[in-house]
Design a protein that fits this description.
D-amino Acid Aminotransferase, Chain A, domain 1; OB fold (Dihydrolipoamide Acetyltransferase, E2P); five-stranded mixed β-sheet; 25 helices; 36% helix; 21% strand; globular
Length: 687
């Protein structure tokens, strides 16, 4: 009979064994047990700790089993800024970078080339060898605290091996292996949920899940590539630092290469170009870094990037497919844009079926024809486009694409101005559909849930014949309508459902109170965008006063020239436009302006720090919708600008802020985080 092992000893045995299994699998790529065996042992440990809670280790394997759902993420400042790295796209430019480093250092530097994993940047902080905090990159200055979620990832050690520094921050990437991505999407398809576009988006979405159990189930993985704050780890080189961290049980890339000169580095880049296609995770380049840490310190950094590192990015992936059809889409202003429909092709991390063809002259310049074999790539790895035609595969009976002469929606004759083709029929159904999509958009009335397909259905069914109809929709009728869901088998139809329908109606009711500036921007009047709408809303208290204004009054406004003033005056005197305002008012849309007189009244009270200031918003803010915040600041007398300059008083930066934040730093412009913004607004409200 097998002797009974005391619970304390068995817990210790299991903890040690499972920690070893994680390290062997993720750090050394040498697993010694199957996933099934791991799960069985973990389940045994969970049961033991339930029966004997005094034996539970808060940093042991069971800490990854799951926790209570989070209510949100807190923004925290990085101790050491997480900078971005400059890119290069050809070997000649890479050689120039190396030569500059060599000249500045007066010596030929050794470099390390690491795969540039296509994941989510993360910073892990260990104190006395225990994981205490995990922050996303955010804007580089502050990031979101995702510690609870990071603890669910098996490759992240919760406690380091050996004698670790008192403080050790490691930076790296969280990615989702392709196998995990396929499994997650298969499950989402089974449950009728929208599929993730690619593995990186899936990783990012998972990391921001409010339920740690979801993170644990999705198979994310961590790979280290650098350090943040570190206490007393004198290793001298990056290569030795990687070796030291592997000894702590921290996963690093097995494909890092140490190169003694430029030629070795170039060879490593070229070799990895073919190897990367065989990997089970996304890689879009190699990051080359000076190995010597003292040399890095000597080279220093610019305001946004270290001079001692550069990312070599491989050319955008191109795939061949067949062009099946060219459709002409009608925009809200009547402009026709050609869109290619192709045989599905997997390129740049997602399946592509459509691509932009820009305009008729671009089609003629590239001699693109229906039936051609074409090369497709993602411009900036985002927007699919047809790069060129394979003329050797062209069929003999192919014919050049002719410019359309009638509107595909309403049949009206078209007009051509240079490369652009227009439908001038104001009653064109396709144009109205696009105007409705614009009207409900995030930066206009922001009616959530009304995506393109739903809008098309509402217009086709005759439920929306004018903008005002959006505010009188019936939930039961909408619930029976169908929407499209993308799955691996293609596009499937499913009912919108009563819950979603009611959510759309609630959002529409909230949109009624957006005020005059938002309504003006949403109408799509010629020359009247968000900035012009706000200018008008500051000078006219409501729609009635605006409709009674003259061209001369408009010309007197800031940034209103004769052309814009004449166009606006003409539009506002059109019967259909005036009826549009009347219809909106009749369904309860607020046509008054909270911005009226803001420039005159703002600043009353010493606590209003926004009055007279020029402010730029950048990044994602957790507690504010961008357009609403801009209007709120402007109502307090601020000027919200879209670009950073020496005249900018301060920048309000949320997570994932980009070039605007970097420019603010280079110009020495004050930078606020969201916490500072909230505090300033509260001080005004309570003054």
């Amino acid at each position: 009979m097998k002797p009974t092992v005391p619970p304390a000893i068995r817990v210790k045995e299991l903890t040690t064994l499972l920690d070893r299994a994680n390290e062997a699998y993720y750090t050394h790529a040498a697993p010694f047990m199957s996933d099934q065996e791991f799960d069985v042992l973990l389940a045994e440990l969970v049961e033991l700790e339930k029966k004997h809670p005094e034996l539970a280790d808060p940093h042991g394997p069971t800490a990854r089993v799951g926790g209570a759902p989070s209510k949100g993420f807190v923004s925290v400042a990085h101790r050491v800024v997480m900078q971005s790295i400059d890119n290069t796209y050809d070997i000649a430019s890479f050689r120039e970078w190396y030569a500059k480093c060599e000249a500045a250092l007066g010596a030929q530097p050794v470099v390390v080339a690491d795969p540039k994993i296509d994941g989510v940047a993360i910073s892990l902080r260990y104190e006395a060898g225990v994981l205490t905090q995990a922050l996303t990159r955010g804007d580089g200055v502050t990031g979101d605290d995702v510690t609870a979620n990071i603890k669910m990832i098996r490759s992240v050690p919760l406690r380091l091996k050996g004698v670790a520094p008192k403080v050790l921050e490691v930076r790296g990437e969280i990615d989702m292996p392709f196998a995990s991505f396929a499994r997650v999407n298969a499950q989402r398809e089974k449950e009728g949920e929208q599929l993730f576009v690619n593995a990186r988006n899936a990783a990012a979405g998972t990391l921001k899940s409010l339920d740690p159990a979801v993170v644990r189930a999705r198979g994310l993985r961590f790979t280290m590539h650098g350090l943040g704050e570190c206490d007393a780890m004198d290793v001298g080189t990056y290569w030795k630092m990687l070796e030291k961290c592997r000894g702590f049980g921290i996963p690093t890339s097995a494909r890092s290469v140490r190169c003694h000169d430029c030629e070795m580095a170039c060879a490593a880049i070229e070799t990895f170009a073919t190897e990367r296609e065989k990997l089970d995770y996304g890689v879009d380049g190699m990051v080359v870094k000076i190995d010597s840490l003292p040399m890095r310190e000597k080279l220093g950094s610019t305001s946004k990037s270290p001079r001692w590192a550069i990312a070599f990015k491989y050319p955008a992936e191109r795939k061949s497919t067949t062009l099946v059809n060219i459709e002409w889409q009608v925009g809200k202003g009547g402009t026709l844009t050609p869109r290619a429909t192709m045989e599905p092709v997997f390129v740049g991390g997602s399946t592509v079926r459509h691509a932009t063809l820009h305009n008729i002259e671009e089609i003629w310049r590239k001699d693109i024809r229906v039936g051609d074999r074409v090369l497709v790539e993602k411009a900036g790895e985002i927007i699919p486009q047809v790069v060129q035609v394979d003329l050797s595969a062209r069929k003999k009976n192919s014919v050049p694409v002719a410019a359309p002469v009638v509107c595909p929606s309403c049949g009206s004759e078209l007009e051509k101005e240079g490369p652009k083709i227009f439908c001038r029929n104001p009653a064109c159904k396709a144009q109205f559909c696009e105007r409705v999509k614009w009207f409900v958009g995030r930066d206009q009335m922001n009616i959530e849930g009304l995506g393109d397909k739903v809008v098309d259905q509402l217009v086709d069914a005759g439920l929306v014949k004018k903008f005002a109809d959006l505010f009188t929709l019936d939930a039961d009728t909408m619930a029976q309508m169908t929407s499209e869901a993308t799955t691996s088998a293609g596009t499937q139809q499913r009912k919108i459902g009563l819950k979603t329908a009611k959510s759309i109606i609630d959002s529409a009711n909230s949109a009624k109170e957006k005020g005059l500036a938002r309504v003006l921007a949403a109408l799509g009047l010629r020359h009247i965008g968000a900035t012009a709408s706000k200018t008008l809303a500051k000078m006219f208290p409501d729609a009635d006063t605006l409709l009674a204004a003259t061209q001369e009054q408009f010309e007197a406004l800031d940034d209103f020239g004769e052309t814009t003033a004449a166009s606006l005056a003409g539009d506002l005197h059109r019967p259909d436009i005036r009826k549009m305002f009347k219809d909106l008012a009749s369904v309860g849309v607020n046509l008054r302006s909270p911005l009226y007189g803001a420039a005159k009244t703002a600043g009353v009270g010493a606590d209003n720090v926004f009055a007279g200031k020029t402010i730029v918003l950048t990044g994602t803010l957790e507690n504010f919708e961008r357009s609403d915040l801009a209007e709120r600041l402007e109502s307090l007398g601020a000027k919200v600008s879209g670009s950073v300059s020496k005249k900018t008083d301060f920048v309000i930066a949320g997570s994932d802020a980009g070039s605007k934040l970097e420019k603010a730093r280079s110009l020495g412009v004050a930078i606020w985080n969201e916490a500072q913004l909230v505090a300033a607004l509260k001080s005004i409200e309570t003054a």
